[in-house]
Design brief:
Helix content: 25-40%
Largest sheet: 10 strands, mixed
Shape: globular
Order of helices and strands: EHEEEEEHEHEEHEEHE
Number of helices: 5
Structural class: alpha+beta
Radius of gyration: 15 Å
Number of strands: 12
Distance between the termini: 36 Å
Strand content: over 45%
Length: 176
């Protein structure tokens, strides 16, 4: 089922520092965080890729604002969006409990996964992502996410991120 925990708005930016400044001032956001990843694997259009990108996020109630800056690497869904549209809202993300079941549901509707991957954090949380090819249908992509700690699916509430930041070091606050 869609909607476990937080819903996410993914925004592609050209320059992270400028974007943090702009969104902090525009929306009065004081707390931004980033994950400490040790391993990332991505597949774009069926091909294994390498991406160097910076991600920052902030949570307000149940909405995560995610900023993504692609620095270099192979062609990917984010760089493609930036080349075609420039900066802007790229996707809406939903945390799910049963990753495979949700992907299968969309496949039966004729919606394919354009990019997927797995992110492992410093202390062992694993996040799986799938970006669905829904731009022509909705005007934006849908991203499905499933994060597990010790095999247990969790959402990404502000409380969970705060606990992860304080106890595990998986999440780090960005100082502006």
């Amino acid at each position: 089922m869609l909607g476990l925990g937080t819903m996410q708005v993914g925004i592609i930016v050209k320059d992270m520092n400028s974007a943090l400044d702009k969104y902090s001032k525009s929306f009065n956001i004081k707390n931004w965080m980033k994950g400490n990843f040790i391993e990332e694997e991505y597949i774009y259009k069926g091909k294994s890729i390498k991406i160097d990108f910076t991600m920052a996020y902030s949570i307000r109630k149940r909405l995560m604002i995610e900023l993504l800056e692609v620095k270099k690497g192979d062609e990917n869904v984010f760089s493609h969006f930036l080349d075609e549209h420039g900066e802007g809202i790229h996707h809406l993300g939903y945390y799910v409990r049963n990753f495979e079941k949700e992907i299968e549901k969309y496949k039966t509707m004729g919606i394919d996964v354009i990019q997927h991957g797995c992110i492992k954090s410093l202390k062992g949380s694993i996040t799986r992502i799938a970006i669905l090819d829904t731009e022509a249908l909705y005007g934006y992509a849908i991203e499905l996410l499933e994060t597990r700690i010790l095999g247990i699916p969790i959402g990404q509430s502000a409380f969970i991120l705060y606990i992860m930041a304080r106890l595990t070091g998986d999440v780090e606050r960005i100082k502006l």
